[in-house]
Batch of 3 targets.
Target 1
Amino acid sequence: MAIDRYGDIFSGFFVQACMHHLGQRIRVGTPLVDHRRNSHNYLRDAAAELACIMVLENLTEWLPEVKLSGSTYTEAYLSLAEAMDEQVERFDGSVWTDPTRAYFHQVTYCMRHWVRACRQIA
């Protein structure tokens, strides 16, 4: 099962972990827009998303417990990238294959790269 979706969902959980570390909170409310979608094959969609759902089970248990460092969002985000690099090697279960771990190592690489880019334009 490939992980090729859910980047927006993963990112939301990552920022929530950073906000929690910094003593802030997030509020989610009703949608701002009405998103009308084209027709879907829901079984095919579910099959494509199953790996992400299984990964989220582990991530959503781990993220509230992870100990981050830093006093800014960028520091907390970098701390999360470091912690996630280590944690994905510890997760177990059928979904935690070498390609899944590689996906999250690529995500943490991109997280660090994003912080470097933001620091250059700030």
Target 2
Amino acid sequence: MKFRLPLLFDLLIIIFFVIFVYEARDWRLQARLYPWAIGIPMLALALIHIIWELKGEKKPSSPTSNAPVDFSFTKGIDPVLAQRRAINIFSWIFAFFLGIWLFGFNIAIPAFVFLYLKVQSSEKWGLSLALTGGAWFMFWGLFDWLLRLPFPDGQLLIWLGLT
């Protein structure tokens, strides 16, 4: 059997989701629902993928061969441009994580949606505000109103005594 990089990635994914599901085993049902609803199907998919890799079978493919997960799609792009785009998107992701930590989910999610639409995508004010309001409403409606999931307060709000 020849070692392939996708095999190592599959093993890491399996280890991650086993820990992800295992850690939630003693939580109350409401808290356990999210990790299990995501972790168990992802664990099953990762196991199916690793079986395909070990058997050496080709994965089912779509009619088009240029799937967005294929690494060959960057061959026609300048490496400097690709690097700049990667740094840009990772900066947005880390800024989102920092915003969640500093301000909490209730503030960071609408702020991130609005800033991304306005700054990165250069959308008009009306569309940016409408989509931000929709994202906040969906977040609030699903997690706060329907599921009643408590989210931790932002660290900056705790430091300032605003919680």
Target 3
Amino acid sequence: MMDTSAAFVVPRDLKLPAELVGDVPRPSPDEIREGPLAQKNRAAFWGCLVAAAMCLVLSVVPFVDTLALYFLPLGYLCWISLGLFVIALFSYLGGGALKKATRHVQHGSAGFGRVVELIKYPSVVMHGQPTAHAFRATMQVLHPNSDQPVFMQVKSGDFSTHKKDRVETRFQVGDFVPVVWLPNKFDETFQIYDFLELTPMASLQRGVDAAKKPLWQIFLLAIAVPAFFFVLFWNVYALERFMPLEFDFAGRGIWPMVTGGVLGLVIAITGWLATRKRAKPPAGNS
């Protein structure tokens, strides 16, 4: 934490981002479409839409009714599909967090605040283990109603705990950073502009994860998750329905098991090596 007794004086050479300058209502910059918040919104929409289609297709497969005897939700795939479709539709039309954040650009007020304290902390803890982290910052800023310095505490969006070491801010304690708020709602809507994550530049820095994810990766993930559980419960169904009365596991069953184990190990090692290669910084960078 920095010394808060120093006078609050904003350096004259600081300039607000171009999208925060001008009379309201301001136009939304094109960069918002490529920002982290818009990417999350698209991923949620397409993920729910693909998952809804998968559930609808599986609901008409003949043996799913038998599988539902072992896993009850499979008997309600049509309703699950409808629910996912409604969620995707509301995500697309409503805009959610993206629409709320964009209002700060279109109708909000902007200024500069000084970072007094900045910490990265576990924001979600389940069974004693952190599953998500976030940044919490204490800011010194001039209150718009009194022009007197006040202290405000704000929080960034959550990010996965396994990525916490790769997520950083562009600023540090003592820096002056752009802050935004909605008119007549300063105390309720005050936020650091970077914490809104509206544009690729004004956002948390995620290193190799900052690159835009291709649409095919979202499709693949949305298909892989239900497919995994389908295969899992299909194995239970197949073992119960098609298991032979006599089978020599020691003689005939060992080799398929060993082959599957070796293939799984090779895939796991290949994925681990690919992840290390992505995470390794380019030669010459410190």
